[in-house]
Amino acid sequence: MNEDRVKMRNEQWREDLRKSIPAKERAAIERTPMPELDPKERIKCYDEVNQGFSKEQAMHEATRCLDCPNPGCVKGCPVNINIPTFIKNIERGNFAEAVKTLKQTSSLSAVCGRVCPQEVQCESQCIHLKMGHKAVSIGALERFAADWQRDHGDQKLPEMEPANGIKVAAIGSGPSGLSFAGDMAKLGYDVTVFESLHELGGVMRYGIPVFRLPNHVIDYEIEGLRKMGVKFETNCIVGKTITYDDLHEMGFKGIFVGNGAGYPRFMNIPGEQLNGIMSSNEYLIRINLMGAGRGGDTPVLTGKTVAVIGGGNTAMDSTRTALRNGAEKVLLIYRRSEDEMPACKAERKEAKDEGVEFMTLHNPVEYIGDENGHVKAMRIQRMELGEPDESGRRSPVPVEGAIEEIPVDLVIVAVGVAPNQTVSKSIKNLETTRWNTIVVDEATQQSNIDDIYAGGDIVRGGATVILAMGDGRRAARNMHEKLCK
Amino acid sequence: MNKIIAKEQLSATVVKLVVEAPMIAKSYQAGQFAIVRYGEKGERIPLTICESDVKNGTISLVVASAGKTTSTISSLNAGEFLTDVTGPLGQAANIPTSGTVLCYGSDSNIAYIYPIIKASKAAGCKVIAILDGDVILEKEIKECCDIVANKADLNNILENGGIDRCFVSASATIMKEISECTTAKGIPTEVALYAIMVDGTGMCGACRLTIGGKTRFVCVEGPLFDATQVNFDEVTTRLKSY
C-alpha cells in the first residue's frame, strides 16, 4: 500500500503539479469555508446544512495540499485512504480519477465526507497545523469527489470477478454490512443483506438527520450495490424471523454480523418514565425514519422548551432536530465541560449557530411531572471536574447543594446506546463481552464461530461510520480468503 | 409487501386479516406479535398474531379500529397488500405442560389470549377461559378449551382452587383487577402488557415500563410480565403519551 502511494506520488504529472506552485504559496492560501445555509433559515426546514464545494472551490482548496512525501493525513485516517492522490487529482481537475482513488479504500465516500469526525482523524495530522495554519479541508474534498460522481452520468459498475455461486449474508444494512456486501459482490459472491427495519441504511437512515446526510445519498449507495447483484431482505430479523440455522439451510457459507448498537440507555433516575421523555433513538427514528413532522403518519411530541441530555453527536443531532421540529428553546445538558464532549467540533458549532444553549457541567437528577403524567420540569445538579477517569477525561463530580429546577416540556435522553442482543443471543455459544459486544479477532473480524464474522458497533460498542466500514471490508477480505481455500 | 389472503369481521370494530408471511408463520410462537405498516407514509404499529399456518405460509393479524392507522388497515380487503410485516416479535409465552391454566381475556385482547389457550391445551394442560366484554373468537376458543366461563364465574373458579397458572390479556384496569384476585390466591399470573412502539425491536424505548423497579422494554422482554411486578397506573399513563 505504502509503495503504491510512493509510486503514484512519483508520477510525472504529480511532480509537475507540485512544482507548478511553490509550497510557500500553497501554504499561504486560506482554508475554504464550507458553504452552508443561513442558520436562521435552515432551522425552518430539513434541507442539507452544508452545501458542498463548487468545482472551483474544490480545486482551490486542493491547491492548499502540499502533497507531503510522508503524509500524516493517511495515518490519521482509520482506513488509510490515499488522501494526497485523490486531492491532487482534484487539483488538476481529474475528478473521475479522484473518485477511483477514494473507491480503492472507501465504499461510502459521500457518507464519510459528510459525517466523519475529520478534525480528530485525517485533518488532525495535516502539515498545515504544524505551521500554525488551518488543515486542508479533506472531508469537504472527499464529499466533493463523491458528489461529483453521483451527479455525473451513470453509476458505473466496478470491475467484478465472475460469479462463484457461493452465498454469503450480511446481518444489518448499516455502514459495515453495506461495505462487506459491496466487497463480497465484487469478489463474485452471491450476497444477501438482511435488515430488520423496513428501510435500508441502518444508523445512516434512522439516526443521522437528513440535514446532515440526505436520504438520496444513501439511496445512491444502495442502488449501486443492487446493480452489483446484492440482494436485500428488509423486515427480516435474524434471531426472530429466521435463525442462524435457517441461514445454513438456505445455503449461506459465511455470515457477517453488523447489526449495530441500537439499544438506548436511560439514566434510571426518578421520573424518567414520565411522558415527554424519550430516548434520542426514539426521537430520531420517528423523525428521520418515519418522517414524523415531515408528512409521515407517525406522530412525534413537540415542546417549547426541549432539553437534550448528553454530549455526543447524537445529542447534537437531537438538539438540532428539535429546533426544526418547532422548539423555541433547546438546552443541551452535559455533565462534563465542552472540552470533554465527544461530539465533533463542526457539529457543536453548527448547533450553537442555530441557537442551541449549552448547559455544560450539569446533570439531571430527577424529572417532575404534571397531573397528566407529562414532564414539566427537571432538577439538575451542577457538576465540577475532578480527577481523570478510566477514559482519560476528567470525571464530573456533583457540587454539593447546587441543584436547581428548570421548566421543560420535552426531554431527549442521548446518553449512549448498547448492542442489540437479538442476533448474538440467538446464536448458541457465540462469544460476547460483558458489554454484550461480539468478540472478534481484530485482524480478521472472525468470531469464535468459524463462519461468523462481525464488525461495526456490535463489536466496538459505539464508533464511527468509517471504522464500521473498515471492519466490513476487513471481514470481506478474510472471509474470502477462508472460503476460497 | 404481504398479501391479504382472507378477511373476517370478528366484531363491529375488530377484524382478522390472514396475511402471507411464510417466514413469520414458521417462527411464530404463542405470545408473540408483529409490527405492521401500511402505505409509504404509514406508521409502524404492533398487532397481535392470533394464528399461524406454516403449511400455507400465513399468519392471522387482529386489528381493532382505534385511530387512523388501525382504521385504514381494518378497511383493507383480501387481495390487497400490507406494505410491511415484521415479526414475530417479543418473547414467546412460557406455556406450562401440565396442571390447570386460567386464561382471562376481554374484548379485542381475547385475540392475544387465544393462541395461549390453544398452546396450553396442546401442551397437555386443563384450560379454563374467561371471556369478557365484546367477545371475539368464541367458537375457536370453545374448540380448544375445557371450560369457557364469564367474569361472574371468576370468584367461584378461584374459590374452587386447583388453578396453577394464569394469563390475563385485557385493558390495564381490568388486568390490575383480575391479577389482584388471582395473585391473592397465590396463583402465578402473567399479564400481557401493551405499550406504544415504533420499531418493536428494542431500538426506541417508547414501550419502556418499570417492572419490578427496573426499566424493561415490552417489545423485546414482554409482552408478558409477572403481574406482581407491574405498575398498572404507569401502563395506563404511558399509553396517553400520544
> In CATH's first tier, which class of the largest domain in chain A applies?
Alpha Beta
Measured as a percent range, the helix fraction of chain A is: 25-40%
Structural class call of chain B reads alpha/beta
Give the helix level of chain B as a range of percent: 25-40%
| Low-pLDDT segments of chain B | none
Number of strands of chain B: 15
Biggest sheet statistics of chain A: 5 strands, parallel
Radius of gyration of chain A: 23 Å
In oligomeric terms, what are we looking at? heterodimer
The domain count of chain A comes to 3
CATH architecture assignment of the largest domain in chain A: 3-Layer(bba) Sandwich
Query: What is the helix tally of chain A?
Result: 21
Regions with little confidence, pLDDT below 50 for 5+ residues of chain A = none
Query: CA-to-CA gap between the ends of chain B?
Result: 27 Å
Instruction: Tell me the strand order in the biggest sheet of chain B.
Output: 6-1-2-5-4-3-7
What is this entry, summarized?
The complex is a heterodimer of chains A (485) and B (242). Chain A is of the alpha/beta class.
Q: What does this 3D model show about the protein?
A:
The complex is a heterodimer of chains A (485) and B (242). By secondary structure, chain A is α/β, with parallel strands linked by helices. Chain A folds into three domains: 2-151, Alpha-helical ferredoxin (Fumarate Reductase Iron-sulfur Protein, Chain B, domain 2, Orthogonal Bundle), CATH 1.10.1060.10; 167-262 and 419-483, FAD/NAD(P)-binding domain (3-Layer(bba) Sandwich), CATH 3.50.50.60; 264-416, FAD/NAD(P)-binding domain, CATH 3.50.50.60. Chain A is 38% helix and 17% strand. The model of chain A has no long low-confidence stretch (mean pLDDT 94). In chain B, strand 13 and strand 14 (214-217) form a beta hairpin. Chain B starts with a strand and ends with a helix. Chain A binds chain B through residues 196-198, 206, 234-237, 240-243, 262-264, 266, 268, 272-273, 275-276, 278-279, 281-282, 285-286, 290-291, 295-299, 301, 372-373, 420, 422, and chain B through 23-24, 27, 37, 39, 41-44, 68-69, 83-89, 198-199, 201-206, 208-210, 215, 220, 234, 237-238, 240-242.
